[in-house]
Amino acid sequence: MFLANPPAKKNLVLVAQDYWSDANDLKEIGQVIARRAGDIGVFVVLPRDPPEAMPQIPWDRPTLTVGLGHLGNFNPRRGPVIHNRAINKLDEHAHFRHAGIDTPMTERFEYGKTYDPAIWSDFVVLKPLPQAMTSKGGTCQLIRTRRLRALSPEGLAPDHFLAKGPAIVQQFVDTGKHPTSWRVLTLFGEVLYAIASIVPFERPDFDADDPAIESAIVEPRHPKIGQAVAYKDRRFFRLDDEIFAFARRIHDAFPAIPLQACDILRRNGDGKLFALEINAAGNTWHFSSYSYGVQREALGGKGAFVGQLDAWEVAAKALIEKTRALAD
């Protein structure tokens, strides 16, 4: 546990995650807060830590607790709690639309249903509904909308993701011949880093035959890309004020989710932006997450992620503002 500014007037308790983030990152951010805000004491805990094990926390002060994931055993004795938690994909997309955030039309896929191209557009993508299946890549299929009605469980290859579980159907957003997406990590709407991911292979022309369309690679995480092109040659740190402003709007639609890894598409032609998801569970702190180690090193290591936008300073500013506004 880390304690900054013992004589402070308010507490900020940060709940790290053993696997998803290094508690030392939050301690470093706490040190920045200590330099900039003498009125805030910062404490870093883990979900396995019960509050009674931490008598140093002065619970008589107004407190704000922020978790980058689940809180586990930790149950703060006072003050509001804001933490990451998983959100069902379909619920997330419904919330986007309710909040006025542009997002591709999305619903649970049903065999035998007629999907009207006049409503859905000529092309859609099929994706697994379970998050565990989409996180590995290679499970996003481009298909002509009129072809959906002909799909059946009996006609699928045994290893097709549709044979393994429920799926969603989503309007295809054409981002160009080399499909491109953005990952923008925000904390309370402030951008910590931004990466553009580009598919190095050209997608087929839209007048190609069905087999060519349905075998197209349109997602940057497809495993065949990793076998052919180095990670650093298809993912890049990028700055884009329009993308950043859109990510802030996305946060405003989900204010109770502090850490958001916003996946964003920019449509080819008119430049319109679309939100895909925010990865609300919190396993996206790729400054230090265990699962992203190889990719992180390929992009220059932790220093490159922190240095793009001076992430620790940005995070400290956002946390100071939230603590002053919400601690109770």
Describe this protein's structure:
This protein is α+β, with helices and mostly antiparallel strands and 328 residues long. The protein has 2 domains: 10-84 and 312-320, no CATH class; 89-280, ATP-grasp fold, B domain (D-amino Acid Aminotransferase, Chain A, domain 1), CATH 3.30.470. 26% of the residues lie in helices and 22% in strands. It contains 10 helices and 13 strands. The protein has a 5-stranded antiparallel β-sheet with strand order 11-10-9-12-13.
Span of the ends, CA to CA: 21 Å
Mean pLDDT across residues: 92
SSE class: alpha+beta
CATH homolog superfamily of the largest domain: ATP-grasp fold, B domain
Q: What is the succession of H and E elements?
A: EHEEEHEHEHEEEEHHEHEEHHH
CATH architecture of the largest domain: 2-Layer Sandwich
- Count of beta strands: 13
Number of helices, where a helix is a run of at least 4 consecutive DSSP H or I residues: 10
Compute the number of structural domains: 2
Q: State the CATH class of the largest domain.
A: Alpha Beta
Strand order of the largest sheet: 11-10-9-12-13
Could you list some keywords that capture this structure?
five-stranded antiparallel beta sheet, elongated, four-stranded parallel beta sheet, D-amino Acid Aminotransferase, Chain A, domain 1, 328 residues, alpha+beta, 10 helices
In a few lines, what is going on in this structure?
The chain has 328 residues and is an alpha+beta fold.
What is the topology?
Blueprint: E1 10-15, H1 23-36, E2 40-45, E3 63-67, E4 81-83, H2 89-98, E5 106-108, H3 117-120, E6 123-128, H4 131-134, E7 141-144, E8 167-171, E9 180-187, E10 190-198, H5 210-214, H6 223-228, E11 235-237, H7 241-253, E12 259-266, E13 273-277, H8 293-298, H9 302-309, H10 311-326
Parallel strand pairs: 1-2, 1-3, 3-4
Antiparallel strand pairs: 5-8, 6-7, 6-8, 9-10, 9-12, 10-11, 12-13
Helix pairs in contact: 1-10
